[in-house]
Amino acid sequence: MSRPKIKPDCTELIAVHGGACAKYDPSLSEDCRYVCGTGSVEKALTDFERIEKFNCGFGSHLTIDQEVECEASYMSSKNMSFGAVGAMSNVFHPSRVARHLAHSNWWKQRRLLHPLILVGRGAEKYAVKNDFPTCNPEELISNAAKDSYEKYLHRMLHPYDTHDTVGAISINTNTMEAESGTSSGGIVLKHSGRLGHSCVYGSGTWSERRQYEEPFDQFSERTISICSTGHGESLVKADFCRGIATRVLDDEEGIMYSEIIREFIREKMEPSARFGGIALIVDKFKERMSLEFLIFHNCRYLPAAVRGRNNQIRVFESKFDPDNCTDDKFVIESFNM
Q1: Which residues form the active site (predicted)?
Q2: 170 pairs with which residues across the strands?
């Protein structure tokens, strides 16, 4: 009798979220499950950008001038590479352009300053130059986006009652390197040319690996990958993702990561601002490793999914009722992976 094969641990942890939502929709979490299982951060974001119901790529919210202006960002803990694009109206997958910008050596080879962010026509020209699929701006406008525009323009509803920025994060448990990214159409009825938190270094996403010296010439490692969604201007003011990551990486007292995030939100976020986010944190010392997934927000619904070391995908339907909550006007959930 042959022995059963032991399935090796999956080394690439990945988590995604479908953006801050104003109401519960179970189909969004199932879409997150699908997107989470398709591969890397880049692949997950391009899948989101193809699904009309999410606010990114095709189906993005319209500006006050009835146009689509997409934005996206990408970050890697390796060399702290970062790239972002904004106010793009002719590219199917802005997240791919952001990742390409982060890793491009074009400027280094010419001894030029490597830009972190490209916007508008400059970003669109960069996409064309590097052979990314482009389109007419009208091809990114969905019927649902048109309906949303009309509804919010004439009924004067709150623009944050719609879907928001989507995100994906990952950590490789072998190398302890991380990647993270976001993609967004921005809020409905936004002013043309407005850039949200996705484009801002440290606000929409952050991935960082740190090594710590231990006794007897030993070393431990900690890596965090995090992305956010919600009220962009407030997230920018708080330096949201980098601020949380720095506190997590600076902690030497063993404080629970959920408490670190809780204190940051209490101190830095405006009470009226809507926000959300997910994070993966991995601690490693010799053969011991701990993995934690956190989801935190103050929106009514934040769909998410995680693929852990067993290669199984877990779906999270995180809900929050602002009319029936604790002293904290937000929720934080933590899961060991």
Answers
A1: 165 (nucleophile)
A2: 14, 179
Exactly one of 165, 182, 205, 229 is catalytic; name it.
Answer: 165
> CA–CA separation, 286 vs 128, rounded Å?
46
Q: Is 46 a catalytic residue?
A: no
**Picking from 70-79, 95-104, 159-168, 269-278, which range would have the lowest pLDDT averaged per residue?**
159-168
Both tokens assigned to 211 = 């090594």
Average pLDDT, the chain: 91
Please say whether the dihedral angle defined by the alpha carbons of residues 93, 95, 98 and 100, taken in this order, is positive or negative: negative
Contacts of 3 (CB under 8 A, 6+ apart): none
Q: Which CATH architecture has domain 12-57+159-336?
A: 4-Layer Sandwich (3.60)
Gap between the Cα atoms of 202 and 244, Å rounded = 10
Greater confidence (91 vs 252) lies with 91
What is the three-class DSSP state of 278?
strand
Tokens 């280094």: give the residue.
108
User: How far does Cα 53 stand from its chain's mean position?
Assistant: 17
